[in-house]
Inverse folding.
């Protein structure tokens, strides 16, 4: 559905409300406001991939001058839980406790020291004596479920807390499957059947600010945690759970945060600062080093994606069998839901008559996977979109035509929506907005798809590739966001939202939605977000939910406040209520007579009929409307060195109404470059014992300005009837495209099919030599 | 040991331990716009100007800036009177999380001071040591080029 409407604030690229304060270097981040007398934490981490702690001796460390406390499995309560910042009860297994007597990967927690300085804490770590019984480790996910494989979670209290498959005795952290129709019949009807395997790698989000948190004991007996989190309300609940204290004793505040990308959807360090702050009765600050951020925070689930499909000669698809082996590492954070997303955010894009989907998430003694922008859709779309390129070539079709023939249309549904949700069944929905065809046509035009194809002479060869994508907008029938708005006497408004701005600009987008409804500029909306004592609840920044879900809560609260203003103004102007509109900070009647908002507010605060004009609203959705996108890339492959260079990248995206086009473009550009970097160079390298070998930016390369290709983001407007002003999500989808699109472009350039990422010079050269 | 230096135009004397790195001293002295992203000289979040050159504070010992002149983003501009670069970053949407922004701005400032009309390639070269994971750099590069244009008018 496309509906053109003119908006005054929505649809305009107003500057981010926090950008000037960030540009002048304001003290806005967690580390910028450490109180006097603050203690610093360092963590002793496991040198073994799999071992039992036989004894731990902290006497020397504790007697070092400046050391205030040492905590480990012997002196903190054992409470099985998950670090995954999800709604309760969490779909992730309870396989983690603050400190355990067993370590399960190199970098796992052993003990934490709080000391007067980081240097002292660091020194104290070296004085802790730990005796380990080293166990055999599982370092290959393909062997994790083999008979006789070492069991990683043998503790009797590890368990799933929702009714889902969980079999730690064979290292199975999660399993999901679904089927639609008779698969074999589908393959029997096909003229071409392809069966292929695609492998994608471990990667890290690398927010430039690592995980950090400050815990402060308050005189009231409560504890305040200021933390770089995407999920303040889940953090509050999980800290209370870990410490076995009431939620009411915990106050969580999110300041500005230096990027998250899913890594900070994990309650990773808040439990430690809370424990130590309550124990020492002093403020406690913990910030992960960059090495820890790589090895001991969270990563993208590496996966083996097996895809078998059938198609008729005319290009119509007859069946798909998608099989996922996901490596969740030592703990099962997000294991199940990421696996589910491999199906639910990829399969509905095409009209498959017969479908089988199956995913196993297995434990290994390797770094822990978690939420990472794209959340399973990245990995499965990587396989699927290369696979469809292979199918198009087998059918001698243009890859665009194959997709045009088979993609889901407006008004249609997919059986996958109902069959597959967050761990269990999903929610049926039909597509009410889709601009995928326009994404394909505009993207193809921008890159010159039909004009210049496989070209180049000598060692440098050029080629183009494309991919189509979908994601979701929030988790239907699970997620909730809420907002509260009150009016001030100068006609400004406080907007309080639980929603979490992690640099994405959600404070600005939500302010724009409120401003549009209230008939004011963004400057009149004072946003306060993510403070569990002050703002209403919100699940947090994940699952591409904030604009769509929290935005609708804001729109509803603003509509309620607007109605109150109109009613008051109608009385003041003595005109019928229906004739009053809110325009530019005034309530204006049809005849032109008007009052300023400040007059309305002054009257309700100091004049007559005294009350606070205010409203709160929640939003809960039965839909998760997918944004759609088509990506195009031109690459140049150096056949002598194997180096792949991106010449130009075009990402056309249908995100419904872009509430703030510049911010939406920024989401696309950032996601795309992260995806290109992931496709070409990012990967964890392990030694034979399971130790990450490249845990610095020097050895784990991420793209810099010098690597920057031309990137063009195209916003293709549609109107999603269930979203605020027609909006859908935009933040995750863009990261899913580069890995398949670049592989497809490499094939066109040099005729080798890269089915294992990243496409490093070594790998491309090896493939060229095998050709 | 005492360190005598000039920061943002003001002469100061700092106490520092020998071997202490400049980043830690700057943050302790309240210049918290200088960010710690890696502490290993790889990310550029702690970029400051030392006698006008963009340098990473985490790679300098505090003692190395004795007698030198330091600039942090605090001296670049204020919300009421922002530097053209800051204004351009805001207007172009070049700031997402903002953690890399102070370092980016100072690398850009050092570039424009020595080369008022840089090409796109020269901007990319100058900012190459400053990592950003949010923006894909697209709007940052645009903002620097735009600021250069405005400063030349």
């Amino acid at each position: 559905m496309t509906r053109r409407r003119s908006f005054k604030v929505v649809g305009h690229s107003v500057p981010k409300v926090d950008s000037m304060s960030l540009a002048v270097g304001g003290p806005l981040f967690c580390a910028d406001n450490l109180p006097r007398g603050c203690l610093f934490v360092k963590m002793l981490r496991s040198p073994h991939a799999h071992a039992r702690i036989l004894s731990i001796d902290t006497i020397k460390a504790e007697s070092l001058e400046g050391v205030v406390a040492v905590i480990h499995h012997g002196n903190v309560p054992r409470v099985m839980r998950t670090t995954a910042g999800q709604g309760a009860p969490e779909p992730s297994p309870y396989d983690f406790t603050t400190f355990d007597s067993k370590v399960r990967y190199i970098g796992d927690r052993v003990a934490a020291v709080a000391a007067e300085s980081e240097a002292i804490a660091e020194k104290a770590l070296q004085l802790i004596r730990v005796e380990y019984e080293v166990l055999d480790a599982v370092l290959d996910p393909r062997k994790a479920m083999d008979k006789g494989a070492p069991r990683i979670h043998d503790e009797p209290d590890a368990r799933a807390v929702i009714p889902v498959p969980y079999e730690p005795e064979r290292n199975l952290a999660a399993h999901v499957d679904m089927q639609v129709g008779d698969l074999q019949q589908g393959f029997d009807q096909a003229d071409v059947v392809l069966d292929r395997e695609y492998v994608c790698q471990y990667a890290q989000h690398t927010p430039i600010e690592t995980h950090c948190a400050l815990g402060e004991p308050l005189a009231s007996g409560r504890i305040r945690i200021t933390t770089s989190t995407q999920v303040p309300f889940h953090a509050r609940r999980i800290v209370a759970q870990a410490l076995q204290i009431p939620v009411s004793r915990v106050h969580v505040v999110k300041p500005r945060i230096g990027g998250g990308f899913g890594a900070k959807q994990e309650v990773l360090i808040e439990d430690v600062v809370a424990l130590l702050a309550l124990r020492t009765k002093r403020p406690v600050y913990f910030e992960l080093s960059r090495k820890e951020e790589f090895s001991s925070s969270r990563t993208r689930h590496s996966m083996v994606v097996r895809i078998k499909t059938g198609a008729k000669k005319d290009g119509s698809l007859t069946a798909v069998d998608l099989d996922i082996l996901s490596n969740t590492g030592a703990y099962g954070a997000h294991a199940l839901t990421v696996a589910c997303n491999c199906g639910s955010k990829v399969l509905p894009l095409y009209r498959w008559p017969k479908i089988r989907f199956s995913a196993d998430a297995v434990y290994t003694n390797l770094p822990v996977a978690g939420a990472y922008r794209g959340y399973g859709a990245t990995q499965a779309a990587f396989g699927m979109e290369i696979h469809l390129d292979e199918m198009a070539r087998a059918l001698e079709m243009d890859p665009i035509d194959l997709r045009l023939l088979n993609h889901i249309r407006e008004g249609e549904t997919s059986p996958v929506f109902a069959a597959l949700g967050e761990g269990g069944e999903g929610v049926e929905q039909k597509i009410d907005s889709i601009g995928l065809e326009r994404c394909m046509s505009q993207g193809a035009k921008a890159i010159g798809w039909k004009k210049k194809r496989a070209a180049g002479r000598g060692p440098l060869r050029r080629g183009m590739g494309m991919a189509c994508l979908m994601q979701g907008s929030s988790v239907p029938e699970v997620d909730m966001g809420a907002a509260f708005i009150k009016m001030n006497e100068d006609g400004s408004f406080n907007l309080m939202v639980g929603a979490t701005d992690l640099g994405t600009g959600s404070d600005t987008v939500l302010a724009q939605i409120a401003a549009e409804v209230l008939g004011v500029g963004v400057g009149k909306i004072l946003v306060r977000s993510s403070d569990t004592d002050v703002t209403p609840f919100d699940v947090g920044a994940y699952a591409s939910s904030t604009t769509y879900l929290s935005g609708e809560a804001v729109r509803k609260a603003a509509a309620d406040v607007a109605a109150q203003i109109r009613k008051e103004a109608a009385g003041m102007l003595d005109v019928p209520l229906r004739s009053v509109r809110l325009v530019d900070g005034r309530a204006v009647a049809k005849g032109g007579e008007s009052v300023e908002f400040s007059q309305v507010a002054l009257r309700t605060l100091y004049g007559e009929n005294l009350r606070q004009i205010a409203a709160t609203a929640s939003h809960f959705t039965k839909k998760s409307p997918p944004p759609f996108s088509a990506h195009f890339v031109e690459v140049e492959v150096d056949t002598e060195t194997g180096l792949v260079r991106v010449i130009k990248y075009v990402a056309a995206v249908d995100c419904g109404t872009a509430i703030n086009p510049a911010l939406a473009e920024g989401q696309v550009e950032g996601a795309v470059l992260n995806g290109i970097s992931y496709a070409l160079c990012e990967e964890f390298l392990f030694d034979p014992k399971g130790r990450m070998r490249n845990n610095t930016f020097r050895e784990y390369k991420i793209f810099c300005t010098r690597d920057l290709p031309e990137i063009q983001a195209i916003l293709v407007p549609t109107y999603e009837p269930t979203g605020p002003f027609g909006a859908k999500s935009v933040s995750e989808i863009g990261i899913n495209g580069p890995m398949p699109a670049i592989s497809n472009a490499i094939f066109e350039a040099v005729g080798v099919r890269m089915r294992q990422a990243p496409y490093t010079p070594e790998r491309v050269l090896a493939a060229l030599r095998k050709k | 040991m005492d360190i005598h230096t000039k920061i943002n135009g003001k002469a100061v004397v700092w106490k520092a331990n020998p071997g202490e790195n400049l980043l830690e001293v700057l943050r302790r002295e309240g210049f918290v716009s200088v960010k710690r992203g890696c502490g290993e000289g790889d990310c550029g979040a702690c970029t400051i100007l030392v006698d006008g050159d963009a340098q990473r504070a985490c790679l300098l010992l505090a003692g190395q800036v004795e007698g030198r002149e330091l600039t942090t983003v605090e001296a670049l501009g204020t919300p009421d009177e922002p530097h053209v670069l800051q204004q351009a970053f805001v207007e172009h949407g070049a700031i997402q999380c903002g953690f890399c922004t102070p370092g980016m701005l100072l690398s850009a400032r050092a570039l424009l001071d020595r080369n008022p009309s840089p090409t796109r390639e020269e901007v990319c070269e100058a900012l190459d040591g400053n990592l950003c994971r949010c923006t894909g750099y697209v709007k940052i590069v645009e903002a620097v080029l735009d600021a250069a244009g405005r400063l030349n008018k």
